[in-house]
Amino acid sequence: MSLACLGSTGLFEPLAEARGVPVAKEAKPVKKLAIHVEGKNATALADQLVAAGPDGMEVLDSAAVEKALRQFGLPAVFGAAIQNKVQRKSLQPNLKKALAKLGADAFLLARETLVGKTHQLYVVYYLKDANAAELDQAVNLGNSDGAQRKAIKLALEETLKSLAPPAPEVLNADTPEPEEEVKLETVAKDETNSTYRAGVAGYEFVRAQLGFQDGGRWFKYSDPISANNTRPYAVFGPPALNVAVEVYPAAQSGLAVIRDLGVSLDYTHHFALKSKTAQNPDGSESAEFDGSWNRFDFGLRYRLRFGADEQPSVLGVSAGYGFQNFVFLPSNATAEKIKLEVPTTRYKYLRLGVDGWLPFGIFAVVPRFSYLAPLGASAPAERIPGPALGGVVAPEPIDDTVYARFRGASVKGIALGIDAAVAIDSGFEVRAGFDYTRFFSAFSPEIGDAFVAGGALDEYLELKLLAGYRH
Asked: Does residue 72 contact residue 97 with C-beta atoms inside 8 Å?
């Protein structure tokens, strides 16, 4: 009797197929999803992420997921690494190992954040063995549970469809089994054509910075002949605030030529600048000056990317107009008498520059160099102070600046600097570095000129600590 049962059981499927009866094939294994969510509402948000997936999707036990993550040396709290592609990439090999241990087909990382007043959930979704995330975006959650559920479902529903459990296939024996479909590998979009990546240097729509600076100036003449009125000058310590912004208006347009063309603005103002001459031997009052020191630059910048798309090196080429003023304002009668002997300058110049962004993980080196071509430095010969031909005394200079006192003044300049930058979180960074600016000039004095020297060297050094943001 048992033999007969075994026989009929073994022959049931072939006989049924021969008669054209639909036969259910064995269902494929259910796909599994591992989830890790961080934030004060992590549990509720994890439930909403699961609800955004298809019915029947298997979600692994959270305790088992956390245990696997710890087993392969991953942190209990990923923090900013969830949003930072560079930090996340260094954790990816161990994430793959944890997925393999769990037998999971996909991994969903999420972090609840507050960007300004916007409540967000940053979501990253990996398929097993994939090197790039299938989903990598911030989801604006809104102010209610309903808005949150709607936003999460809209962002994830389509992506999570791939985890839907497959229905059993039913074939009719009279219909030949279809040939295996040849699947063409989809060519991934060339991300070098992407015009915007949150927090990644070289792709941003806007970059802004605000910082504190401390600086100094050193001015001296070469071959000063009229030594009594060619005074050198040195100061270090006036603090300053700096604000700068770069905007790439077409960054999100996808137009290959103009998307990397930006407009830049940079302004620095130093405070508490006071100067005075040394005590006079006869005990008379020293000359005392208040001061004004500021710097401005406006220009165009074009950026070029090299290397890995996720963390490119960036070369910037720029041109612009700028000014740098260092003005002495007499604050007593003695200072008023020598106001044409102190090195007041008002440089206006055209600038051509190059700069770079050279990343090393979360760190980057930011070098820069510019050539400065001052405008209108030389004063008309008839306005140079001193006896003119025929014994007529020429009038005072056009203004109180150094280069209005000397005949045939020719001025050139350079600026260079370097920063060390550290990426913190979601496009934020901190920088520390310096800028050095050097103006050098030559004069062509004639006999009888009131101010006589071969030239001058004017140097500026600014040390800085800046906070920046890319979007």
From this structure: yes
